[in-house]
Design a protein that fits this description.
Layout (H helix, E strand, L loop, with lengths): L7 E3 L13 H10 L2 E7 L3 H13 L3 E5 L11 H10 L5 E10 L6 H21 L3 E6 L8 H15 L3 H5 L2 E3 L6 H9 L3 E4 L9 H9 L5 E3 L21 H12 L3 H16 L4
Parallel strand pairs: 1-2, 2-3, 3-4, 4-5, 5-6, 6-7, 7-8
Helix pairs in contact: 2-3, 4-5, 9-10
Bound molecules: zinc ion.
């Protein structure tokens, strides 16, 4: 017997990624069958941003974000940034991302400084087109706290204080959050949302679940980050948006709510942030 599926969102899935080239249509069909009503595909650089926009144009459930990921800074040139700026105005582009700081893969101080400069330029673009940001933050050695958190919060504090109106109320999301409760609280005080991914389902993730337990439900988003970060019970396989249900289930368990309540609440949060209506 099949029940009516819950209405879910997956606000971070890399459906343009080559790992989906063989069966993208089936992946999208499985997402629809699982009740995934809205998916956000973030760009990693100009080509992937253009691919995300094409996917959004060809599927009513898919929306795009455009930008340069901090580990793809070699792709960022005046010419490619112009391309992304053009894409940023597309009606199905609902955010600028995936942008941010990655001190895990990038150890060189000068390259980290370049990441911060490019982040500032892309935040300026978000302000210009009046769209929120999807932020990537990864610490050296995957620590819970360090320079990436400190630098990112400094940059976001200044940027958010320069905003007005709805964008100031809903400036963006810290995607796949992997920081301390204190970092989350500082981001929340700047009106940012917190994105939760598959690792919250991992057996050894007690500390992460303790953080999630403290987060206000009206600021949580659920994300697969497909094809990465596959949740239990599919861990070890390629991730896909249909698996978002397992993240909703885990948050429901942590917050003593029903999965349907978490699905509804996170769908409302995503609609508030990305202004994609219902
Ligand atoms: Zn991502």
């Amino acid at each position: 017997m099949r029940c009516t599926p819950m209405q879910l969102t997956d606000t971070h899935c890399h459906l343009d990624y080559h790992k989906f080239n063989v069966d993208r249509a089936e992946v999208l069909q499985r997402a629809a069958d699982a009740g995934v009503m809205r998916m956000l595909v973030p760009g990693l650089h100009h080509r992937s941003s253009a691919d995300a926009v094409h996917l959004a144009e060809s599927n009513p459930r898919v929306y795009a974000a455009v930008g340069f990921h901090p580990t793809d800074m070699k792709e960022f040139t005046p010419r490619t940034f112009e391309k992304v700026k053009d894409l940023a105005r597309h009606p199905k582009v609902v955010a600028i991302g995936e942008i941010g700081l990655d001190y895990y893969w990038v150890k060189d101080a000068e390259e980290r400084a370049i990441q911060r400069e490019r982040l500032l330029e892309q935040l300026a673009l978000a302000k210009e087109v009046n769209k929120p940001v999807v932020l990537h933050m990864r610490e050296e050695n995957d620590a819970w706290f360090g320079e990436a958190s400190t630098h990112l919060l400094e940059i976001l504090r200044e940027w958010q204080s320069s905003l007005q109106g709805n964008l100031k109320e809903n400036p963006g999301v810290l995607h796949s959050f992997n920081g301390t409760l204190e970092t989350a609280q500082q981001a929340l005080s700047l009106n940012f949302y917190i994105g939760i991914t598959g690792p919250v389902t991992y057996p050894n993730a007690e500390k992460k679940r303790e953080v999630v337990q403290q987060l206000p439900l009206d600021r949580i988003l659920i994300e697969t980050d497909a094809p990465f970060l596959t949740p239990v019970p599919h861990r070890g396989k390629r991730n896909e948006p249909a698996y978002i249900r397992h993240i909703a289930d885990k948050i429901a368990e942590i917050h003593s709510k029903s999965p349907a309540e978490i699905a509804d609440q996170t769908a409302q949060n995503a609609a508030r942030l990305f202004a994609w209506g219902d």
